[in-house]
Design a protein that fits this description.
With 224 residues, the protein is α+β, with helices and mostly antiparallel strands. Helices cover 43% and strands 16% of the residues. It has helices spanning 3-26, 33-45, 51-61, 74-84, 120-133, 184-190, 201-216; strands spanning 87-88, 100-107, 115-117, 140-147, 152-156, 163-166, 177-182. Residues 184-198 have low confidence and may be disordered.
Length: 224
């Protein structure tokens, strides 16, 4: 086979592989949000996707995963982002060149999650949401930290949350600062409701929490 013929065969194979990959990727639109990441991982591990395609799929479908930890462990997510490289859903956005200050709303034990934000108000909303939608009454925190550029794995603006995905293993506990701590009684007082001192005060807090759910399910930042 001549060099020209060999080059043509290779070009044809590359084109066929691209067409197969594009057709495969298109099928993800027919999957539910909870099915997409497992399918993306399956394709990646099978060698169906290029690194560029993996990056694009995460960028396009990250918004479908409100709680990434339900789909994969943190270590698995970190491995996927490591394979994909820096990911963003916003044209022109690149990995920061200087340390970045980020915030996170979390319940106790959730301090080292993947998802943070540069918007303090958004993080505070998530802290309140954890507070009123949790299965049990307990504290929620507004956390702050400064992370090095290499630990910023992705930046997403699709939900107007200024979300930053980070490798939180770069942080020592002393580097994560609890800016605010909220508790049901504190939250209700902040909303202008006097906390009763009767024995059933906790029950009243629980009842009020149900009323708050409708308010706190939908964010208000970025609107208007």
């Amino acid at each position: 086979m001549s060099n020209d013929a060999g080059a043509q065969v290779r070009a044809w194979k590359l084109e066929e592989e691209r067409r197969y990959q594009d057709a495969t990727i298109e099928t993800i639109e027919y999957l539910g949000g909870h099915e997409r990441i497992p399918k993306i991982v399956e394709w990646w591990e099978a060698g169906t996707l290029t690194g560029e395609a993996l990056n694009r799929l995460i960028a396009e479908h990250w918004d479908a995963f409100e709680s990434p930890g339900r789909f994969m462990s943190t270590d698995e997510w970190l491995g996927l982002f490591d394979d994909a490289g820096f990911v963003t859903d916003t044209a022109g956005v690149t990995r920061p060149e200087a340390p970045l200050t980020v915030y996170r709303g979390a319940h106790k034990g959730g301090e080292l999650g993947l998802s943070w934000t540069t918007d303090r108000n958004a993080a505070a909303w998530f802290a309140r949401r954890f507070l009123v939608l949790a299965d049990t009454l307990g504290a929620a925190f507004l956390l702050g930290a400064t992370v090095p550029p290499w630990a910023v794995l992705g930046i997403f603006n699709g939900r107007n949350e200024a979300e930053v995905v980070i490798d939180a293993s770069c942080l020592e506990p002393s580097q994560i600062h609890a800016i605010e701590a909220t508790h049901p009684e504190v939250e209700l007082a902040a909303l202008g409701h006097r906390i009763p001192e009767e024995p059933d005060a906790r029950k009243r807090v629980q009842d009020r929490r149900e009323e708050l759910k409708a308010i706190l399910r939908e964010p208000t930042w970025g609107k208007g």
